[in-house]
Amino acid sequence: MPNSYDVVIIGAGTGGYVAAIRCAQLGKKVAVVEKQKALGGTCLIWGCIPTKALLEHAHALKVIRDAKEWGVTLPPATPAIDMNQVQSRKDRIVTGLTKGVEFLFKKNKIDWIKGTARLAGKGKVDIVEGEKQTLEAKEIVIATGSSARSVPGIEIDHTRIITSDEAIGLKEVPKTLAILGSGAVGVEFASIYRRFGSEVTIIELLPRLVPIEDEAISAELEKSFKKQGIKSLTGTKVTKAAAGDNGVDIEAQTPDGKTQKLTADLLLVATGRGPVTTGLGAEQAGITMEKGYIKVDDLYRTSVPNVSAIGDVITLGSGVHPQLAHVSSAEGIVVAERIAGQDVAPINYDHVPSCTYCDPEIGSVGLTEGEAREKGYDVRVGSFPFGVLGRAKMAGEGEGFVKIVADKKYDEILGVHMIGPRSTELVAEAVLALRLECTVEELIRTIHAHPTFSEAVGEAAHATHGAAIHL
Ligand SMILES: Cc1cc2nc3c(=O)[nH]c(=O)nc-3n(C[C@H](O)[C@H](O)[C@H](O)COP(=O)(O)OP(=O)(O)OC[C@H]3O[C@@H](n4cnc5c(N)ncnc54)[C@H](O)[C@@H]3O)c2cc1C
Known about the structure:
Elements: E1 4-10, H1 16-25, E2 30-34, H2 41-45, H3 48-65, H4 67-70, H5 83-107, E3 111-119, E4 124-130, E5 133-142, E6 146-148, E7 161-162, H6 164-167, E8 176-180, H7 184-196, E9 199-203, H8 215-228, E10 231-233, E11 237-243, E12 248-253, E13 259-264, E14 266-269, E15 273-275, E16 289-290, E17 293-295, E18 307-309, E19 314-315, H9 325-339, E20 354-356, E21 362-366, H10 369-374, E22 379-385, H11 390-395, E23 401-407, E24 413-419, H12 423-435, H13 440-445, H14 455-464
Parallel strand pairs: 1-2, 1-5, 2-3, 5-18, 7-14, 8-9, 8-14, 9-10, 17-19
Antiparallel strand pairs: 3-4, 4-5, 6-15, 11-12, 12-13, 16-17, 20-21, 21-24, 22-23, 23-24
The protein binds flavin-adenine dinucleotide.
């Protein structure tokens, strides 16, 4: 049968396409149903890739603005950003990567069925829009991802009150930009548009920016944002937002209960994402759901035999499931290997790195100091500032620090938190350290090359034992 497969995967995001490639590598006949015109899902089309491309433009502008410091002479004109060029370069990067996934599908003989999928009973998937047909599958993997959501009382009109989907494609730099929410998406756009020249205000309900990070990281980011001219209104609840022809009128309640009014050209709602299951027929198929998410066990089995789910659309029942591209891909590999009959172990979500590409960057893994204390560890911490590192001085990027949270009793590293240059790269060493249950002593004995940013990690380990060399 031409439309009969070992595995049918619904959604070609970083979860679905990676699962498809791994299934194909393991000898399975695979089809992926994707309704967008390109492969790659949120990460490639609207998320990780376009935002980080824009951040690289913002960084280029920063370096050019500091030309004098670098001894580079420029014509007398003030450096400015050309949004047409920014957008076309970003779009070229996105297209290159989505075409790259298409190439990988061809290489691995994976069929891309263009259309919208709906579960149609045991081992069947209907394509209800696009290339209409019914597919037969021994195994089905749902990887339909997430989409931006708002908060009650704030209606997204996609013109003045926007989500990240619109924020990546702006043709003009807004004069004023208000951002609701200071998670990764909120602070990354704050960095992008502040560098491009917007007046940016971030409004966060919780008492600090990037509230899931270690408190010291939040404080450092707020300090840096203040220096850059980004306003942070923390502990502040937006109660009303009305879009008009000239902008958005926003009302918010400050921590002391007062009402604050502000106006902005655009309001970016960055308050999180919800699961995409509309029209999928998951409930009708008997799949157990929880708050709209598909409930799975630790090897991604749903309540219906031979139907699995991975990525942003799932909940594991307990704890927060991180909505991250690398998490969805890791789950895609586990699910593929399980389907192929391999012996697989559940993912340890305590070892998932969290990277935020704002300026300065944040990289973290494991327990924050507060969490470690709450769990009853006898905690010891050590930090080392990038400011005293030779490599950071050369790069002119001395903000931030690396902080290690460790258990005094066994010297085990419980968490590593960093803010500053290359933190999203440096965190990889910390992830491996946690995975291998490293002690602080082992990190101290690990030789870090000189002069590198990574010396901050080694020095933070020394600092945790009260013996930083360069402090
Ligand atoms: C602005 C932004 C920045 C981000 N930055 C980062 C980052 O730097 N690092 C990081 O790790 N994560 C980042 N993320 C999160 C990351 O993009 C997601 O966690 C990841 O894309 C989830 O992958 P997924 O495969 O679960 O779902 P998705 O990527 O959402 O893919 C789901 C796919 O399923 C398709 N689909 C849905 N329903 C159907 C159906 N019924 N039939 C056919 N197709 C269907 C959709 O069209 C979509 O292509 C960012 C997200 C955003 C919004």
